[in-house]
Structures are given as C-alpha cells and as structure tokens.
Here is the input.
Amino acid sequence: MATSEEELFASVDALLEEEPQLPPPAERARLREAAGITQARLAQALKSTTQTVKNWENGRSEPKPPRLEAYQRLLKGWAEKYPAHTPLRTTTPTAAPVPHPAAPAEPAPALVEGAETAAGPMEHTDSATEPAERAESATTLQQPAESAAGPAARTEPTAGPAAQTEPTADPEARTEPAAAPQARPVRTAPEPLSALRAPSSRRPVAQKTDRPAPAPDVDPRFPHGPLAVLDGEGRAFGAGGIVLDCPAATVPELVEWTLAESGLGAARLHRNGKDADPLVVLTPAAAVKLGLPERLDGHEQRRSLRLSDDHPVVKELARKQWKLTRRGFGPWARIYRPAQSGQRQCVQLAILSWDALDARSWPGVAELGPPEIARVLGVYAQRVITPRGSTAVSGLELMTALRPPTRAVQDRATGNWVPGHNPGSLGTEPVDPAPPEATTEHPVVVRTGWKGGFLDEEAYQWVRDVDHLTGEEVTLPYAVGLDLNTAFLAAASRLTVGLSAPEHLVNPAFSPKVPGSWFVDLSHVRLDPRLPSPFTPDGVPPQGPAWYETRTVAYAQELGHNVAPLEAYLRRETGAYLDPWHDRLRTAYLDTLADLGVTTGLSDDEFLAAMERHKEADPAMAAVLAAIKATVKGGIGKLRERPQGRKYRQGDRWPALERPTWRPDIRAAVISRARVNMHRKLFKMAEMTGLYPLAVLSDCVVYPSPGRSPLDFLPYSTSGKPIPGVFRLGPAPGLAKPEGVQEMAWAVDLMEQGLNPARHIKGGGHDAVLDEGE
Here is the structure.
C-alpha cells in the first residue's frame, strides 16, 4: 500500500515531538570540560545537585523534563562552540569551599587506608555497642603508602595485588561513591542567625558574610558536607548554606538518596580510621511526611524511645533489606545494609521532635529553623565529629575515631595486609576492670564476692563548715563564683593512662609514673579544715586505708607525706590515650569562643567584658560551645556507663561492657587529676593571699569577696601580672571565668542549711555529675 505524503509528514512530526536525545555520557562530560564549567556550577544552573550531574555524565541516570530540554539546549550550544578535539579548559571552583578538619599529626608513616578490627568496628549508640553487628564484620585492608598528606588530601589507592580486600557485614562500613566528583560545590562561610532565611531555591545558596570563608579543601567524595537538615518541603539544608533537592517520600527512599545522590559524609579523622556516615536530621514536618509519628508515647523517657517492630516504616525498611541496630528506630536511628567488598552502606537519622537534640547539651537548637540547625551541627561536625547520638556518645566516638584500635600491617609469611594493633589505642577487645575499679553491680564484683572497697574518685562536692567562717569573711558583702574552663578536658592533657589489663601486686613500692589503683592509708595527711581534703569527693579527710588512683597518691607525696601502699592493681602498658581527643576538643573550644568574641590575648578586664556578652554575640555559636562542653563531660562519664533499664539484674553483663572504651580506670584518672588540680590552686590561693573557699562543686569554687568581680580578690604581682599557680582568668581550658555573684548573706544561709552555694551561685543550678548514660 502506497504511503501518502501526509502520513510521512505525520511520522516525521511525531519523531520531532518525541523526547529529545542527548549525546553519549562521555561526550557530555567532554563538552562541559571544554567550556571550563564545573559539575557544581552546572548543577547550580540546572537547579540540581553535583551528584546528579555526575550520574548524567557516567550514564547512571538521565535527566527528566524540564531539566532535559535545558540540558539538551546547553549541550547543543557547547557542541557548536567546541567541536571534537577542542582543548579542555581548566575547571575551578566558583567559591571558597567549606573546611574539612585536618587529622592530627602522627609520627608513623601514613596509611592510605586503615585496617579495621577483625572483630569489626564498634558501634556506640545511646545505650552501648551493638556486639551482634560488631561480631559479624571482617576487615578492609589497604597497602600503606608513603605520604605526608592528611586525610583531607588523601587519594584512593589503585587496585592491585598489594590491596587485599575482604567482605564485611559491618554496619560501620561506608559505601564510597563510585566516582569522585570532578569539582567542588559552591560553598560559603556561615552567617549569624539573624541573617539566615530559608531560601526559595533548591540549589546551593551563596550568602554574604562579614567573615572570611574557611580555607581547607573539601573532600571530593563528600562535596556537600557531613550532614543535612530535611524540612517538610523536600529541601535538605547542609552546612555552609548549601540547599539540596531531596525527592524522597519514604524512609527507604531517603536512605537511598543519601547514599547515592546527596554527596554527604565526612572523611576519617585518623588515617587508620573510618569515614563518618552521613547524618540527616528530620524536622517534625519531614518526619510526618516520611510516615513517622511527630512524637512518640513516653517521649519524656528519651533513652527508651523507639518505634515498635510492627510499625509500617520499620517493616518497609525490612522489606527493602535495610537493618537497624539493636537500639531500633529511635531518636538516633542507624540504618544500614551489610557491607559488600568493604563498601559501607549506613545512614544516621536524627528526629528532632523525638528529642534527638537534648536541650541540656544543645540549648535552643531544636527550636531553630533548618538552615540554623544545619549551621550549628555543621560547625560541630567540622570541629568535633559528625554527631551520632547524644554529646556523650559523640565524645566517646571521638576517642575511638582519633585512636582507631587497628591498623594495616603486612604478614611477613604471606605478604597479605592484616589487621594489627594500633599502638596507643585500647585495642579491639574489652578488658575487665580490677574489682575496686568496678561498680557494685559489675560481674567481676558479684562473681568474686568482692568486699575490699571501691575506688571513689569523683568530682568535688564540698561545703566549708560554718564554724570555720571568720567574722571578717562574714562581713564581706559578696560571694563570687569562679568556674574552671572545661576542667576535665584540661586534666586529660598529657595524661598517662593504662592500656592493658590490671595486674595485682601486694605491698608494692609507689611510683607516680605507673597508672593504676592503690590501697593506701592517707588518713595521716591533715590540712587546714578551711580547705577540702584532696583525697575525697566530699572533702572530708579519710579515716583509714582506701583505694586511690595514682594521681591522688602522688599528690600526697607532693605535699610531703610518706605513702606505703598495701596492695595495688597496676597497668604496665601505658600511653597518653586521650591526647588527640584533648587537642581536638581544646581547639574546638577555643575557636568557638573566638567566634563569640572571647579570644586569647585579652586583658583580664577585656576578658570579663567579653564573657558578659559572648552568648548574645551569636546564639548559634553559643549552642556549639555548650555542645562542646557537654561532649567533654559526657565522653569522660561514658567511660563508666552504668546498666540501664528496669530489666537489668545485678551481676549480668550489660551492653556497654562489650566495648574496649568501658574503662572506669581512665575516667578515675581524669577526675583524680582534675580534683588535684583544683586543690593545688586552692592551697596556693590560701598560701599567697590567706583566702579560703566557701564551697567547691566540681570545677566551680566560691570565694568571699569585697566586690562583685573576681578582680577584687584574685592576686596580682606589683607589675599587674597574675600570680603563677593560683586561679587565673582566661579562655583556655583550666583557666577561670566568672560563674556568678550573690550576696554573702545568701551564701552563708545556704551553708547553714547544708546546701552548696557553688551549685546555685549562677542561678538555675550547676551540674557536677559526669553523665554516664546519655
């Protein structure tokens, strides 16, 4: 049958009306590079993401209308301008990148990829390690490479006989992007909260700022930073002002998008460690949109929050082959699949309306808008670690991230790379404490029937007896509180702790260089009753032999008294395990204070003035500062996490005992040193000035004062410089800042009631407890 002219033209018109065709993926990349345009800039122009553009250029996906027509038009224009064999232009970022924290310097040769423990990396949730998942995992090992570059500058190793890779089922194993982005996304430095508004565009937003953009490079594998805050309209707000389009309508789709397209994550903090899993924070509207309840019943008991196993979201995750840790789907949910060939697949979710951000550690953050929350958490992630739970959990995770338990070592017999112990770390297996270092419910105590007493190294909670107040002190008008900045962090600096199991010795000679627990009689050491005893938390002198940590016994020697231990539990393998942790948190603390206008080098008058206004200077940075301080206290407290839940029976092991970082002896060493540091200053103040404290609570001390300022009673030399050894004002850890001021009559009234003025001098109470559970 003959074809009519009209039919031919109709067929041609139909072809013309069909979906436009694009050049092959490789040609798309060539044309963009010939034009000198980065993937990030192209994504910005097309209101898409860098990862999506990368997928178009490697053939993983195709654009859909209306981006398809716009992309085709752009490629057609480039094809006319840059025919084949056109020399490529150099592509450069269009804006300063968001910083990535540099890894701490290490003396050993750098490893391109670190060895993970054969027992699997540890998982710390708000309760403890998940030993079931930890036991499943194997190891990913890579050949060491000579390189001076830190993790931010590290390149991935090439495949070859030297690289030995084993599959792992570890939820910590992180899926690496198949191809690294070829350019960095547009980034800007964060602005003050008053300048942040929810953008109307779903592309990276460039915002003006009066602060210079940070200089360090972005890891090309994680171009959009460590985390994002998802709102109810499908916008994911990242650090540095970036905004991504998130099309996910269910939790499984959100997980898939996060791993495949978001470009979220963070590089390891140590060359032998692991990259951080991406974090997605869900606003209440986002949670509801994804099928989650806005609140959970019993939300006042945050530790027990979780969705039931028969909840539709939990069942859908199971159908999609996604797994949850033993903590289930709670405020901090970890969703993962068993890793394949060392590639990790894990996403962390934080649900704001389920109290993921505790107001005690993150004051006011949960009430902020998504851009502001992203800014606060982004700064914390950059300076500390990507949050994985409470600040206590993050503090403990930071220890392991900076001191990974294993490293890659070469087996001389086979030439293969295998996991080996990383010197200075706590290793991969938990170590039982000595009986006096344990808690009363610990299996070691219950099993052995231990009755020999316990280590009581806790923070000060002491009030001077009112009978020891002088008439001159009572007539002074004010009681002024001084607070030592992050006292426990200062105590962790260059602190030698035990790394191995304890050994029992009888009648040992005391050595201040050997960490451990000593049974010794210090009741003969008597000091002025206007000072607390340095050997007990309540400041009451001991009445006979007791267990003390090495630093407490060493201080008795420092005061000129003889010590003769009756027995001891000592650790022969030692090291400054907390040094990298201290250094990173100290830098984070000082940098955040500097953002608030409190810098080193200020005079005492300038420092006091800056402290008066620092919280109002930038509420977002003030929240970061509070979180850093909570990370310090919570991390130390987590070293002796107690059992949780009503179902626990005394003598049973609880989950926290299955991690190597359950180390009450290290916690005791930090607290002992902090208390000794405090007493040393109290003693020196009395010696130099004749001033004695009214009360001490952990890192806060209250003195009687003729004026409302610490400058009215702190001693200075004739040249105006602070006297060494006493309390000094300043922003650094271990130095002091004003805590509050009240009338002297108020303080005396509390003391007569047996209450501690140091707890209330600021107003609203003062927390002296190291959190062992959050």
